[in-house]
Amino acid sequence: MLLATISWLILNILLLLSGIEPIYATPPDVSLTKSTCHDACGTIPVRFPFGTGFGCGHPDFGRTIKCSSSGALQFSTSTGVYTISSIDYSANILILQDPFMSTCASMQNSGSFHLDSMTPFKYVEEDTFVLLGCSTTSPLFDANEDLCDTGSGLHICRGLYSCKGVTGIGLEPNAPISTCCVYDPPFAVGTSAVSNGLDLPKLQCSSYASIFGFGGDEGNPMKWQYGISLQYNDSYYSDETCKNCVTSGGTCGFSAIDQSFACICRNGINTTSNCFGRAELTEMMEGEGGGMKAAIGVRAMESLGLGFDLASDFRLKFAKKCPDSADGRLVVLDDSSRRDVVLPGGGGGVIRNVPDSIRCDKGDRIRFKSDVLTFNQMSELLNQKSSVQGKVPSGYFNAMFDLSGSWLNDAAEADHLAFDGYFISLYYLHLIASPLVLHDKVKKSVPSHWNPASLSRFIRTYGTHIIVGLAVGGQDIICIKQRPSSVIPPADLRGYLEDLGDHFFSDGRSPLLERKTRDGKQKVPEVFNRMLQQHTMQFTSITETSSKDGLTIISSKRGGDVFSQSHSNWLQTVASHPEAISFKLVPITSLLSGVPGSGYLSHAINLYLRYKPALEDLHCFLEFQVPRQWAPLFCELPLRHQRKKSSCPSLQFAFFGPKISVSSTQVGSGKKPVVGLRLFLEGKKCNQLAIHVQHLSSLPNMMELASVNSSVACQWRGSDDYESNEQFLEPVRWKKFSNVCSSVVRHDPNWLQGQESGGAFVVTGAQLVSKGQWPKTILHLRLLFTYLPNCTIRKTEWAAAQQSSRKSGFLTNISTTFSFTQRAVTDAPKQLPAALNSGVYPEGPPVPLRSKKLLRYVDVNEVVRGPHDTPGHWLVTAAKLVSDGGKIGMHVKFALLDYTPA
User: Fold this and answer.
1) What is the dihedral of CA 262, 266, 267, 271, to 10 degrees?
2) Which of 484, 374, 454, 533 is nearest to 833 (CA)?
3) How many CB atoms lie within 10 A of CB 674?
4) Disulfide-capable partner of 67 in 52, 111, 408, 823 (CB 3.0 to 4.6 Å)?
5) Which of the two residues, 851 and 356, has the higher pLDDT score?
């Protein structure tokens, strides 16, 4: 160690004498050295952006790919750990092997496979996914959605079903292929599966196989190449940057301070470019052993007064600088008087030339045990710690509890939350200037009127808040998420968490209490015991989930050696590798008093933080935040007695069933895009079936420019326009009575003949029609399509009405028919979907109780997408009627559009 330190000192002296400045220099025992980074894991070469140790490669890939102690390169997702068999760096493709995936040689029941959200990987479109042993009721076998390839995919099913291994999933060799489905990668499955993976229980299939090559013989499944191909994005840094680093003898990695690029050189000298010579000085250091501490201190000091996006995780790399400010700060600071600040906590760290308006206080070390709180209560608690008012979830809150960021969905899935952790603050930096004054450049950037383009540009540039204080150190926390299905009382849950924390933070010296019930049975859920098991792979966070108990436990660290599994060992590394762990924030809008347009900006920021669309979608999101209304309006519905009863076609689903008349009125939106559909029972007796559309009250600016010069006329099209062999008829109850046509109603591609490419048809109206003779009448859906030029479809998804339960069958019908009073509820209360509707009657006006008997035949739930459906600017492009559980319902196809200037 002494020899290494002397070598380090000599090298720095030579660098300084030659005019070369290191980015930061620390002795090898406290810095990242090349010995922790390897160029191979087993037999697989490991190159940037992948790495084999802490600080190697790119941090976004380090969360997913690890080199195990046995020398196997492994890929981790929420559904399991998979071995990487090969990596093609020229094509940016790697191959995964799922041990439970079926091949011709061996077939078995498979588990689900998902790619985690925000992952830098995506499925390779040329791969072939095959679902085996599927139920005939699987949502895959829907002829209207074209999920299964019934043409070229047949030989693949026949080939796999000819294998002897098919007996492993309960089938005989050469079994009928009616239970096999060949389709595109999972992101094309639509509503029948998770958008980023396979959910076999939901798809009602036994197993799956993924084929990325046929080995030159498509007729011999034994020669096929089985595995999951994933493509990754390596555009995080330019190829030249990493290439120059490797050429100079360094290893491409990232800085532990802000996770920015670092070229890891020998003897602990790390730079931002290469190991040849002079590197840009980005950190300030003074005092032996205080380099890392002073470096993060300088970065933290320079972040005070910068902008920040509350939807981002609380990390310094997300701070936003003012483009035209010398120091990047959004606020004006008096820097005429400066001083040197010695960082508390020892180590000799010194920050030079610190403005007097910035103060450095000594930190503290605390263990904080929260109560078991509801979702909104926990969000409000963490906001208070950051001096933020309200209960809107922050990015730190979402990262801490591993949430998706969708407030509506997260609040519905997380019934209670709690955490227990140590928060080590070495020192606390904060602004003391009062009052804070924004730069004129920031004030002039506020649009004076509602302009979504300017408002989104402001938020992307400056953020939503200003950093006025932050603590530097580390945190080691354990978090618990409890789903609504869990029956564990909050008091017991807090006791389990406290026992687990005592055990974790004492490195096992405090035994985990074995709480038992009165009859002596084990009371502690098994998921707590799994958290105590040793983990051979290195993860920055460890997650264990129990579906039985409805619990998810997350252990994570920030600052120090985040891969350390021992709390005491981690504590020793916090001082040498600290990180910003606590932010104090002030809303930008609170400093805009008297500035024209500040109210519009405040409204835009509130919408952005509430629904959290991606920044690249923020412009479109704000364009769509106009009032929405249903057509027809409730005041337009005929509720009074009609003097002359008009003849309306009717539906009857059983011999003794009631008749429901059908309203054939064309419902339009005035060429405004439709964002939702619903079936409705109109009339005084609520016995007339009609369709309603929800649409934007005004056209977004970008869409108005696109539609003003449109030369394609609006056109109606319905399932009754199709040929008889293209109409799919489904009975609601009895086949010999009324049916619904479940064919998808979409625009006719022939309408665009002679038109330039680059446009899309959206729905702007709807109508129901009934055709045929009693008793076998057929209900059809018709839609009005309007053409929008200068736009392209980015993504489409099918959606159905949200329902807590579906009941069908003879016994259910009897119980529903003869239940005139409310029955006692014996089951556990069901989780009701969260609602973001402040109307007096959010589900529609009150209707007579006697009319509810017809709800047995019609699903009147809305199928809509609003701002809470990320990214918040979905439009209806197609729809179809369905018969599900003895009810008439609707499936709606939504699309995201990308708009281009005319």
Assistant:
1) -30
2) 484
3) 27
4) 52
5) 356
Q: Which helix (H) or strand (E) holds 251?
A: strand 251-254
Tokens of residue 320, six digits: 């936003």
Identify the helix (H) or strand (E) that includes residue 86. Answer: strand 80-88
pLDDT band at 407 (very low <50, low <70, confident <90, very high): very high
Closest CA to 105 of 168, 170, 176: 168
CA-to-CA separations, 575 to 34, 35, 253, 368, in angstroms, rounded: 22, 22, 21, 20
Cβ neighbors of 413 (< 8 A, separation 6 or more) are 483, 484
In angstroms, rounded to a whole number, what is the distance separating the alpha carbons of residues 740 and 730? 5
Token pair in block for residue 622: 């704000």
Beta strands, E only, 495-619: 541-546, 551-558, 579-587
Verify that 268 and 164 share a domain, yes or no. no
Check residue 592 and give its pLDDT: 95
Read off the pTM. 0.69
- The letter for the amino acid at 375 is F
Three-class DSSP labels, 132-146: ECCCCCCCCCCCCCC
Pairing of strands 791-800, 739-741: unpaired
Amino acid at 836: L
Q: Check residue 695 and give its pLDDT.
A: 95
Tokens of 611: 């629904």
pLDDT, tens digit, for every residue of 490-526?
Answer: 999 999 999 999 988 987 766 655 555 445 555 788 8
What local confidence, expressed as pLDDT, does residue 745 receive? Answer: 93
- pLDDT at position 843, please? 52
Q: By three-state DSSP, how is residue 836 classified?
A: coil
**pLDDT single digits (tens) 842-863:** 455 555 544 567 788 888 899 9
How far, in Å, CA of 534 to CA of 524, rounded?
19
Residue 702 contacts by C-beta under 8 Å, 6 or more apart in sequence?
Answer: 619, 620, 623, 899
Task: Determine the Cα–Cα distance for residues 192 and 797; give it in Å rounded to an integer.
Answer: 10
Q: Where are the alpha helices (DSSP H) in 590-708?
A: 598-611, 618-623, 701-707
- State which residues form the domain around 758: 623-820+840-899
Residue 555 domain-assigned?
no
Same domain, 205 and 64: yes
Indicate if 28 and 86 belong to the same structural domain: no
- What are phi and psi for residue 751, nearest 5 degrees? -65, -20
Q: How many Cβ atoms from other residues are within 10 Å of residue 720's Cβ?
A: 17
CB 333 within 8 A of CB 433: yes
Listed in sequence order, the DSSP H helices in 506-633 are 526-531, 567-574, 598-611, 618-623
Please name every residue paired with 888 in a beta bridge, in sequence order, or none if there are none. 858, 883
Using N-to-C axis directions, what is the helix angle for 598-611 and 452-462, rounded to 10°?
70
Residue 785: inside a domain, yes or no? Answer: yes
| E strand or H helix at 295 | helix 291-303
Residue-wise pLDDT for 2-31, tens only, equals 444 444 444 444 444 444 333 333 333 333
- pLDDT greater than 50 at residue 224: yes
Residues 641 and 742 in one domain: yes
For the purposes of burial, counting CB atoms within 10 Å of the CB of 10, is it exposed (0-12), middle (13-18) or buried (19 or more)?
exposed
Q: Is residue 42 part of a domain?
A: no
d(CA 731, CA 882): 9
Q: What is the pLDDT of residues 559-583, one digit of tens each?
A: 988 888 889 999 999 988 899 999 9
Confidence of residue 205 (pLDDT cuts 50, 70, 90): confident
According to DSSP H, which parts of 67-214 are helical?
Answer: 154-161, 200-203
DSSP state of 882: E
**288 SS3 class:** coil
Token pair belonging to 80: 């399991």
In a domain, 103, yes or no: yes
Domain count along the chain: 3
Tens of pLDDT, residue by residue over 600-626, are: 999 999 999 999 999 999 999 999 999
Token output for 165: 């291994």
